[in-house]
Amino acid sequence: MDGLVGILGGMGPEATVSLFSEFIINRNVEHDQDHIPVIILSCPDIPDRTECILNGKTSPLPKLVEYLKILENSGVQCIIIGCNTAHYWFDELNKSSSVNLISMIDSAVLSVKKYNYKRIALLATEGTIFSRLYQNKLDDCGISFMIPDHKQQALISDAIAKIKSGLKPDIEELKEQVLIIMKGNGADCFLLGCTELPLVFYSLSNSFNFINPSKEVALAAINWFENIKKEIK
Hints:
Oligomer: single chain
CATH architecture of the largest domain: 3-Layer(aba) Sandwich
CATH topology of the largest domain: Rossmann fold
Structural class: alpha/beta
CATH class of the largest domain: Alpha Beta
Largest sheet: 4 strands, parallel
Strand content: 5-15%
Number of helices: 11
Helix content: 40-55%
Order of helices and strands: EHEHHEHEHEHHEHHEHEH
């Protein structure tokens, strides 16, 4: 099947569902057959990415490589990884893969550049913040950004943990203690650098500007698919 896209997910499962939904939301089609063919591999047994980066716990890399191979053997021609923090290993995964990998980090940063926001507030896991996955890319593009303070990061990390366990975080507390304060300090857009965060912040999209990397990488994969179809024709 030409243009088959693979999603390596399960980090966490609800965020994987949201990522897949972006393929549907962002396509104007008339029939089932017009949608993009996708294989989703949801693997929740992949070791915690932040625990590895911060505390030297079990590396997720072997599992990530194993599951990429399963997708490759399934016939996919393009793969996206449904976890921002897992992109800490993106270069190694890209080298190990025989098919095209599209970076969620690069896709989100390209979107930031397109909209010309003056200062970005980066909300993400502690692992993503610590490893500077976004900060380095934003620096390279000359984009100003800020990161949460210790108290704000604790609230964000707690929210991510709750979403992963099926609970709902206190959105009003996040709004008051994180979004409003960071906006007051000059942030004109929030980059939601963890795939769980759009699940709770979408309800506030009328009051704040958000960049959703799940949406941006899905759009990049859609663009890849459309280019493949043009080449075939």
